[in-house]
């Protein structure tokens, strides 16, 4: 058993090119790549632990550093203000899963379907440039399509061995990653649709997912963890706020300032967007989106009734949701 494993760093929805394994990489935007190939000088990537779980008989598990991002220790941005939040988390400071969440889920949870595509597919200005595509899945193989054209089938390479997969050359070519992720390293960006079809061990197509190039920001979408709350003055509801195009595709580069308005038997409590370099107040009733999303929190009062939550921003259609406090 090991503790504080991985210490991989990433920022939700932020991708860096070219896609290379790096230690202590810093950028002008104070973020780390969500391709999940960057780590600290003393740490590693998730697969460096996965392969030990499976190949070493005395290795029974791990405690990953960390499940969630937290305030402080903005490694590798030690002295780079305004960085003030960690980037280690599998889930960001707003409680929103990063891509890495699905990599861990694909390894740890074999019972539920995991089929996750990254990166997003909205890259104006990257047309015809190499833009690798990764798929995190608990299925053994998958085929990738860009606008209906097959980019080939990939299968997890279970022949990768522990001892021979950690040389400098093996790390550079992502040898251990080939055992746990499906990667198309030479794909080129063209606007449209990414589609992945997963296959079971017998070669049967069993699941598929799509990612679409987003258009202009059109409207706000709200989703809530639950709509029925307890009227005790303490219960909280966590509301995901995102901006989408007219077809409902997340706008991954949207940074709209969202204003919150809460009426009825509840109050606005806080918000977070997961940006480790954002200095916006958690308590103020407005916040900018980060990679198109944020989380707002509403708190009940002691009197039962309806809570009305509205999110608005200039230039896009606002959204409302009703919660019941009993």
What would you note in describing this structure?
The protein has helices spanning 46-55, 99-108, 168-172, 175-180, and strands at 2-6, 22-23, 38-39, 62-65, 115-118, 133-137, 141-146, 149-155, 182-184, 193-199, 205-212, 219-224, 228-229, 236-244, 257-264, 266-272, 286-288, 293-300, 305-313, 316-325. By secondary structure, it is mostly beta strands. The strands form 6 sheets. The chain has a 5-stranded mixed sheet with strand order 13-20-19-15-17, with no helix packed on it. The model has no long low-confidence stretch (mean pLDDT 97).
Strand order of the largest sheet: 13-20-19-15-17
**What shape does the CA trace take?**
globular
Return the average pLDDT rounded to an integer: 97
Please bin the fraction of helical residues: under 10%
Total number of strands: 20
What's the short story on this structure?
By secondary structure, the chain is mainly β. It has helices at residues 46-55, 99-108, 168-172, 175-180; strands spanning 2-6, 22-23, 38-39, 62-65, 115-118, 133-137, 141-146, 149-155, 182-184, 193-199, 205-212, 219-224, 228-229, 236-244, 257-264, 266-272, 286-288, 293-300, 305-313, 316-325. It has four helices and 20 strands.
Question: Which secondary structure elements does this structure contain, and how are they paired or packed?
Answer:
Blueprint: E1 2-6, E2 22-23, E3 38-39, H1 46-55, E4 62-65, H2 99-108, E5 115-118, E6 133-137, E7 141-146, E8 149-155, H3 168-172, H4 175-180, E9 182-184, E10 193-199, E11 205-212, E12 219-224, E13 228-229, E14 236-244, E15 257-264, E16 266-272, E17 286-288, E18 293-300, E19 305-313, E20 316-325
Parallel strand pairs: 1-4, 2-3, 13-20
Antiparallel strand pairs: 5-6, 6-9, 7-8, 7-10, 10-11, 12-14, 14-18, 15-17, 15-19, 16-18, 19-20
């Amino acid at each position: 058993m090991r503790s504080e494993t991985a210490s991989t760093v990433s920022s939700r929805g932020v991708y860096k090119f070219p896609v290379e394994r790096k230690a202590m990489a810093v950028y002008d935007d104070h973020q780390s790549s969500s391709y999940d190939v960057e780590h600290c000088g003393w740490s590693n990537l998730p697969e460096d632990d996965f392969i030990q779980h499976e190949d070493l008989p005395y290795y029974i598990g791990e405690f990953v550093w960390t499940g969630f991002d937290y305030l402080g220790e903005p490694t590798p941005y030690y002295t780079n203000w305004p960085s003030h939040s960690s980037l280690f988390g599998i889930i960001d400071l707003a409680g929103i899963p990063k891509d890495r969440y699905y990599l861990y889920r694909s390894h740890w949870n074999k019972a539920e379907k995991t089929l996750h595509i990254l990166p997003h597919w909205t890259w104006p200005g990257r047309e015809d440039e190499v833009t690798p595509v990764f798929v995190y899945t608990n299925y053994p193989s998958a085929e990738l399509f860009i606008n209906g054209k097959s980019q080939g089938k990939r299968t997890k390479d279970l022949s990768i061995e522990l001892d021979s997969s950690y040389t400098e050359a093996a790390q550079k070519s992502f040898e251990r990653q080939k055992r746990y992720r499906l990667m198309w390293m030479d794909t080129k960006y063209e606007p449209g649709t990414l589609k992945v079809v997963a296959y079971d061990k017998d070669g049967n197509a069993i699941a598929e997912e799509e990612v679409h190039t987003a258009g202009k920001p059109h409207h706000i979408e709200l989703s809530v963890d639950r709509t029925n709350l307890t009227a005790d003055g303490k219960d909280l509801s966590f509301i995901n706020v995102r901006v989408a195009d007219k077809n409902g595709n997340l706008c991954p580069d949207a940074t709209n300032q969202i204003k919150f308005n809460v009426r009825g038997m509840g109050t606005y409590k806080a918000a977070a967007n997961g940006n480790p370099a954002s200095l916006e107040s958690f308590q103020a009733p407005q916040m900018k989106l980060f990679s198109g999303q944020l989380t707002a929190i509403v708190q009940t009062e002691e009197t039962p009734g309806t809570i009305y939550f509205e999110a608005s921003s200039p230039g896009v259609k606002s959204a409302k949701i009703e919660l019941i406090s009993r």
